[in-house]
Amino acid sequence: MLTFWDPQGMIFKFGDLEMTPTLVEIVGLTRLPYLDKDLIYTRAHSSTKFLKIIGMDLEDRMGCLDQSWVPLDFLFERFVRPTGYETFVDEFSISYDSWKKRRPIVFDIALLGLLVFPLEGRHISTRLGSIAFALFHDKHSSKVTLVPTILAEIYRALTRIRQGGRFFEGSNLLLQLWMMEHLHPATMFEKDVIDRCLRDRVKCIDHRMTFDKFPLPLGVQAWVDYLGSLTEEKVLWSYLWIDLDVILAGSRVQDFLVLIGLWCTRPYTPARMMRQLGRRQEVPYIPDSRDFIREFDTMPHREVDIQTYWRHAMKMGRDTLAADPNSPGYTHEYFIWLQSTQRGVSIPLPRHVRGVFDEEVTSLILLRQLMDRFT
Q: Which PANTHER family does the entry mention (predicted)?
């Protein structure tokens, strides 16, 4: 997939079509809300704030804190082990009872750091302290959403690997699920699959395992050839099991939204991916959004502007859905426009990237160990 990623357009160019993960698809895969919610800010974090959230006060500062991460083992030894408090009592600024209340927060941080926002070497980002607190423990937790943060970091990770990075610092699991769902044409599904999904998603997934599967390519080059030859008939444009009645279609202030991630901001232009949102695709207006493809350490302080764009997001309702959302179609003008853009081609990845070790399986094992200890 990485060979087809366009880092400027934040979009995959497979064969003669364009696709990219969208907010509503991440919502469908995670079951997290995002409409009428505020963005979570992670830029204004500090190691001191992180330590305060988890109830610690280290006299001997660890160098990794200045790089915005801590080892997973550091959290494991102090919060997962039943004797963690008494063993490291000199490092805590809270009582034993408060320590017990902090353990779920640390579990949330570890969970997010392993599966959603992974770092190389089993490192856990200290920025996740603010995320976990805002989502699960703050009195305003119902007013914020994690969905834009997840999507921004997937976009960032794709670009970093495309440029030669060695580790995918986004949710590789969600990205793979996103792609695999689109590779199941609607003809493979039984007519009642939507009703099954609405009633019981677990039973639906179990039932779907009995469906015919599309033939999976074998080997890297076979996958490159397959994705490079994709046509619109070979993909499921909009998921059958997600709610597309209301979507975000840009901002009233400008023609795109801006997502805030853990480490960056990224533009989001839904007008370019309307077929994935169950709408007829027209020629999209492509604004100059390069100023928002930024890492936090290289961008000016614009959080207020970004939040303004988000709060003035334009919505499209059910009346804009195509007659058949699974095959929404496009205008002739869009077809001509698409042919004029660069067709999806395979650009070889750096050699070391082709052998990147996927640590998510290891992360799942570690997560299971943590869950077993907490339960």
A: AMINOTRANSFERASE-LIKE PLANT MOBILE DOMAIN-CONTAINING PROTEIN, PROTEIN, PUTATIVE-RELATED
| CA–CA gap between residue 99 and residue 174 (Å, rounded) | 32
Q: How far apart (Å, rounded) are the C-alpha atoms in residues 364 and 169? A: 16
Token pair of 62 as six digits: 């660890």
Tokens 């995670």 belong to 30
For 241-254, what is each residue's pLDDT tens digit? 788 999 998 888 88
d(C-alpha 135, C-alpha 38), whole Å? 11
Q: Which residue has the tokens 């003035």?
A: 312
Q: Are residues 250 and 300 in the same domain?
A: yes
Cβ contacts of residue 208 below 8 Å, gap of 6+? Answer: 189, 193
Greatest CA separation found in the chain? Answer: 70
Instruction: Record the pTM.
Output: 0.85
Cα(75)–Cα(103) distance, rounded to whole angstroms? 10
Q: Give yes or no for a contact between 100 and 82, defined as CB atoms under 8 angstroms apart.
A: no
Q: How many domains, the chain?
A: 2
31, amino acid identity:
R
Q: Are residues 163 and 139 in the same domain?
A: no
Report residue 57 as tokens: 């006060």
**CA distances (Å), 268 to each of 48, 249, 261, 329, in order?**
32, 9, 12, 22
Residue 246 located in a structural domain: yes
Structure tokens at 279: 């709408």
Task: Extract the tokens encoding 96.
Answer: 């034993």
DSSP letter at 114 equals: I
Whole-number Å distance between alpha carbons of 335 and 176: 28
Residue 351 lies in a domain: no
Instruction: Tell me the mean pLDDT per 10 residues along the chain, length 375.
Output: 89 91 94 91 79 86 85 95 94 95 93 94 92 80 91 96 90 91 69 51 61 69 88 86 89 88 92 94 88 78 82 93 89 91 55 46 58 62
Q: How far apart are CA 252 and CA 273, in angstroms?
A: 18
Cβ-contact 20, 11 below 8 angstroms: yes
**126 and 164 both lie in a single domain:** no
Residue 361 lies in a domain: no
Residue 113 and residue 72 in contact, taking contact as beta carbons nearer than 8 Å: yes
- The per-residue pLDDT for range 199-223, each reduced to its tens digit, is 555 566 666 666 655 567 777 888 8
The residue range of the domain holding 81 is: 47-144
Q: How far apart are CA 256 and CA 313, in angstroms?
A: 9
